[in-house]
Amino acid sequence: MIQFDFARTDDDFRQILALQKANLKQRISSEEAKQEGFVTVDHTFEVLQKMNSPHPHIVARDGDKIVAYALVMLSQMATEIPILFGMFEQINSTPYKNAYLKDLNYFVMGQICIAKEYRGQGVFQGLYQKLDEAMKNHFAYIITLISLHNPRSCKAHQKVGFEIIKNYQTDYGDDVIIVMKKTE
How many helices (H) does the chain have, and how many strands (E)? Predict the structure, then answer.
């Protein structure tokens, strides 16, 4: 039975990193990346720990095993992960509903990943439901970036209520910035 919880221990971080590494775009075939999705950023243990405070990452557990995660990233992390510098520049310069994204009360969904054998079982929605519960009193919006070469992720995010607000090119390909207003 899947339980949704918070990342708390060093073992939790190690399991997140192992799941992340198994699903990095450069570690899977292009066909698998297209069909199953992928993650782009390879975090260090230290950065993952730092991102976990003051708002912890959400994890899905099957017993003691972490089978999925959703990483919380505050805008203060903009200078910590070089591959994401461009994403934060795009967020800061993107208009949205008579303001700029940088002026909204938001956090970034730093990455979401589900182990292959748990996909298609509602885990994605469960992660976002737990995330919404944890963050609704702190932030009004969730912002994230998705590669257009990851159609599974694009579709899943739109299904839970994200809207695409900007397409742009990076050194890594075509991406979109997506936004979801949190529940009240």
Answer: 6, 9
* DSSP strand pairing (173-181 vs 141-147): antiparallel
Closest CA to 113 of 23, 6, 5: 23
Give residue limits of the domains in the chain.
Answer: 2-181
Q: CA 150, CA 72: separation in Å to the nearest integer?
A: 20
Q: Which of 26, 16, 101 is nearest to 66 (CA)?
A: 16
Per-residue confidence (pLDDT) for residue 123, from 0 to 100? 97
Task: List the one residue out of 86, 75, 60 whose CA is nearest residue 141.
Answer: 75
- What would be the CATH architecture of the domain defined by 2-181? 3-Layer(aba) Sandwich (3.40)
For residue 147, give the nearest of 126, 172, 110 by alpha carbon. Answer: 172
According to DSSP, the β-strands at 65-73 and 95-96 are: unpaired
Residue 75's pLDDT is what? 87
- What pLDDT score does 65 carry? 98
Tokens of 68: 């999925």
pLDDT of residue 183: 59
DSSP-derived letter for residue 121 is S
What backbone torsions phi and psi does residue 150 show, to the nearest 5 degrees?
A: -125, 70
Write the DSSP assignment of 88-99 as a string of letters.
HHHHHH-EETTE
In terms of residues, how long is the chain? 184
Residue ranges, the chain, pLDDT below 50: none
